[in-house]
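Hey team,

Filing this mostly as a record. A colleague (T.K.) asked me to run one chain through the structure pipeline before their review meeting, and I want the input and output archived in the tracker in case anyone asks later how it was produced. No errors, nothing strange. Just documentation.

Input sequence:
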Amino acid sequence: AKAVGFLAGSIWLGRKISPHSSRWLARLDAGPSMLFAQVLATALALAWRAFSDFHFVHSRDLILPVGAVYCSLAVIFYLLTRDYTMRKARVYTTAFLFLFAFSFGAVTEINGLFPFGPPIKYTAKIVDKQISSGTEGPDLYYLIASPWGARKSDNKLVVTKRTYDGFRIEDEVTILVRQGAFAIPHYRVVRKQ
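Output structure:
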């Protein structure tokens, strides 16, 4: 239900970004129509939601499924638009961004929303805390943990500000690792159980 509401909201956002069209349905050749903004905004919103919802044990596990979805969609898009006469560079640039964002978002959300089995619990100790502040964009909060499960060296755990503020150095945490629909493990940090 959350994902459907979010998708509907992102379509509404795309509509607000491109108010030039008087209809909800747009054609590909409608100039600077709502279609490009709406489709791109929806894909980017899905990708951002996936990025903020799920944290993976190893990000490299995403390469194959995201690449497969991207290539499949790219072939379908090419076959459907090869006779298209409008400016191809604009269409293909938008398509590249859309397909990559959509592929990442869809694979990540499906993997995370349909887990297999109960989570595996690991216990670790917080050895440090970090905040990564950029000039643009939100701050990222990290808890640096002692080695646990599949992570022996890179133990930076991405967490929310609330979780970050709830832990001190030397606190013990439980890391819940779940296998998703594509067998890509993702984790969540909680108080020691």
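Quick notes for T.K.: The mean pLDDT is 78. Helices lie at 2-17, 34-53, 63-81, 88-113, 161-165.
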